[in-house]
Amino acid sequence: MLKDIIDPEFYKLLKEGAERILKNQYVRVLAHFDGDGGSAAIILTTALRRVGIKFHLGFIKSLDGESFRQRIQEFSDIYTIVVDAGSDQAKFIEEYDNVCILDHHFFQENSFKGLNINARQFGIDGTRGACGATMAFVMALAMNEKNSDLLPFLVSGIIADKQDIGGYTGLNQVIMEHYAKDLKTIRTLNFEGHNLTDGITYSTDPFFMDLSGKPDNVRKVLENLGISPDKSIFDITEDEKRILAEFLSFKLLEQNSGSEAIKYLENDMIKFDQLGFTSKEISTLVDGNAKVGMNSVPVIFFLGDKSQREEMVNNWRIFKTKLIEYTYRAFKEIYEEPNVRYFYAPESEMAGAISGIMMLYLLKQDKPLIGFNVGNNDTKVSGRGSRRQVQKGLNLSLVMRESAKEVGGSGGGHDIAAGAVIPRGKEKQFVETANRLIGEQLGKTTL
User: Fold this and answer.
1) 294 and 347 in one domain?
2) 96 in a domain, yes or no?
3) Mean pLDDT in the chain?
4) What is the DSSP string of 72-129?
5) Banded model confidence at residue 224, pLDDT cuts 50, 70, 90
6) Residue 308: how many CB atoms within 10 A of its CB?
């Protein structure tokens, strides 16, 4: 039972939220516009559907105060659940008491009259130990313990937020130990797809220079290693897995990847036979559809409309193809400052993904990376660091918030990954402030 594995005050707050939600015949769900938020949306909408509560699902792209308030005001008379966002934006909707926020990001205390349920309130590391899907899952359990079968989408969110690297920790670990103990996990290469060729060709986590996006090169490598390119990752022998893992590990080392990235080469994969996908595949399908603006497709599919499968998989392929192409392009156009690197992304939904790939797999781990996407009126910013940088003092949530504030924008997020929205044309000034703040955090000299 949920009450046996979490803090009593945490459980009490979740039950209060569940009671408020269950009193309604119609509920609005607003989820963050990414793989974690999409996974959380599947959990919450399924839980609502099971108790006969009608719902409207929307996704949040911009987290600046004005945009967030406008989204709440669209249907201000309807009870609203905000998941994977909202804690730090609650100060912009303080008067609304018909909103329940389920979040895990850094936030500043405010006078919000609704429910703001954040993992960090209970000593849980929201960067490593709980994601948006985690918060959605515990709320679903508070509504009904039978919702424990929604665990695949908890795992999907954890993977999307990269909280599975190095193993589960915090609340994620507690939940998995309690609710996933009967599931069979397979330690294998961290790929998705029907065969090894597809798995490596479409691989962005990990990303392999001159292999990702290049199927002819992949086939040639596999044949040279004596491994059939058409084999599934679940069908290769232990010797073949060892040979391929060694080759790809050296490949990552040649790319400046750190130890954190190499750990992600292999992972515990869960096969959810009832869904027809592995844990990694569910995560990347949800995230890929979100990145091409088709967030609702996997939600509809996993709610039971199997006719959406082909479109969902095609959207994933489109996303992967574009992401790989944009990553190669951005890698050639990196700008250097003493304490930070930055680049310009062609699409707003790609900036974060590109930043994550280059930070983890392609760039030296000496300073964080910022990606800009310049729009008509404003610029979306995505920052990524490494766990080693965080250990040395990096807090990108603070950097994004303060740098954005300096130029008339807003920002926040995690210590290792954060974002902002700033006025168009203020990118250079933003970088100057970020460069100074990062230098102060990491004890470097700012030139």
Assistant:
1) no
2) yes
3) 93
4) HHHTTTSEEEEESS-TTTGGGSTT--SEEEEE-S-------SSEEEEGGGGT--TTTT
5) very high
6) 20
